[in-house]
Amino acid sequence: MRNLLLTLCLLATAGCDGIAIDLAGPQIMGSRTHESPVVNLPVALRQRNWLSPRAEGSCTHATTVMLFRWQNMPNTAEWWRQNHSGGETPESLCADLDAAGIRYVMTVGEKDVAFLEWSVKNRRGCGVTVMGGRHMVLLADITASQVAIVDNNDPENVIWVERESFLAEWFNSNSWALVPVYSPIPERP
User: Fold this and answer.
1) How far is the C-alpha of 13 from the C-alpha of 93, rounded, in Å?
2) How far apart are CA 122 and CA 71, in angstroms?
3) Full pLDDT tens readout for the chain, 189 residues
4) Are strands 158-162 and 177-180 parallel, antiparallel or unpaired?
5) How many other β-carbons are positioned within 10 Å of the β-carbon of residue 38?
6) In 10 A of CB 45, how many CB atoms?
7) Which domains does the chain have, with CATH numbers?
8) Cis (ω within 30 of 0) for the bond into 37?
9) How many CA atoms lie within 13 A of 117 on its CB side?
10) 107 and 115 in contact (C-beta within 8 Å)?
């Protein structure tokens, strides 16, 4: 029931604050055209991790900035980049998002693989924790056998890993996943 309500709420939301983003070329698979990965954010729009004034990494914020850019929210992405840095917990990030009036959904500690699959199926992507919960990366795709991530410490590359290995790592990292809820870039025709 919770998943049904979540889906209905998300279908009713939409938003946009800026320019359209031209995606990199699609790959042909069978009779349909698919982006690969599904969340195929151009390299120029991927955000590298940065240090806070206290010399902490800002991986959660870098990932959130990429998700805003992907969801056609460049002004929000730039504002977030300029006003947030350092480490975050689910509670502290929620407080920041709530204070900014930003819509989002997330899961923490639930090992909710369906949430990850939903985020990719709906072309939103999501931020996911790895490294025991010490680092957040962008989940760009999830298939039956592989997962694609964009690590903000190496944003030029999409890293494909074996699905079960990734899920084991995510489960050991508090299975935190976050999705801003705006309008993802539509799939190319």
Assistant:
1) 21
2) 11
3) 343 333 323 333 322 222 222 223 333 333 334 568 999 999 999 999 999 999 999 999 999 999 999 999 999 999 999 999 999 999 999 999 999 999 999 999 999 999 999 999 999 999 999 999 999 999 999 999 999 999 999 999 999 999 999 999 999 999 999 999 987 666 654
4) unpaired
5) 21
6) 15
7) 28-41+51-180 (3.90.70.10)
8) yes
9) 11
10) yes
* Residue 4 CA: distances (Å) to CA of 53, 126, 168: 42, 19, 26
Q: Using CB atoms within 10 Å of the CB of residue 156, give its burial: 0 to 12 exposed, 13 to 18 middle, 19+ buried.
A: exposed
- 3-class SS of residue 65: helix
**Contact yes or no for 37/148 (Cβ under 8 A):** yes
The pair phi, psi for residue 31, each rounded to 5°, is -95, 0
What is the spatial distance between Cα 149 and Cα 142, in angstroms, rounded to a whole number?
9
Q: Which residues have CB under 8 Å from 114's CB, separation 6+?
A: 3
pTM of the model: 0.81
**Helix spans in the chain (H):** 2-11, 59-70, 74-83, 90-99, 113-121, 163-171
Distance, in Å, from the CA atom of 136 to the CA atom of 152, rounded to the nearest integer, reads 8
